[in-house]
Amino acid sequence: MIMTIKELLQSGNESLSSFSDNPQLDSELLLGFIVKKTKHWLYMHEQELINNQQKKQWQKLIKQRQQGKPIAYLISQKEFYGLNFFVNQHVLIPRPESELLIEQILLHHPINESLIIADIGTGSGCLAITLAKYLPNAIVYAADISVHALSVAKKNARQHQVKINFRRGNLLKPLRNLKIDLVIANLPYLSPTVYRQTSMSIQKYEPKLALLSANNGLFYYQQLLAQIGSFFPSVKQIFLEIDSRQNKQIKTIIKQSTNQRISQAKIKISKDLQQQDRVVSIFI
Known about the structure:
The protein is an alpha/beta fold. It is 43% helix and 17% strand. The chain is elongated, with a radius of gyration of 21 Å.
């Protein structure tokens, strides 16, 4: 049975009503992806017919969405800070909360400033690429331990036509002996307990490597701060994303650092739109 765009959108909305917080938006995004058109175009052409091939593709995507697969993986993209990024199962889906990292950095650095930035655990590259866009005079390095994640990040850098210096390795190790002014990191910070409390959609589809960490979720941040203290004397600012429940522990880790530069640093914790502690800014 051939259906119009309007009928398919209504059908999608109904089919996803029990599986999505926003079934109408999901329906619009999935159909827009199939016909390669914007939401505005869809509503301006509600009576246009969808061919059988497109309808089959639509039904397949709806079924996958009903099974909990995130929209971003179904349409292979996610918007972050006004930019669209390619994503797949090898990288974490960019979250609106992470935009606060960008906001805090831009708050302290004018557009024409020359900086050397290191994005650690770059994943899709959304942080590094966004900073390269908004701070065009900056030199940006991006590191990740996953070769698959770096492949995604490189694709996004080409798409947005920015120069990023990509390195593969654990935390700051691939950047040893480089002068770096600023470190930004959204590393895995979920403890095993918190990870088990996340949705089945996250546990089933998003890379566990990018989410889970030992020591109450702060193992990688402890390692990162130790590396900065020991090998990167030029670093003056560090911006980290955390779970709001880690606000006191991260302060303790910083203040109890064996490196005086770290232990005496000024600490600022900023809240996200849900008024949850989200970004730790460290000024050395």
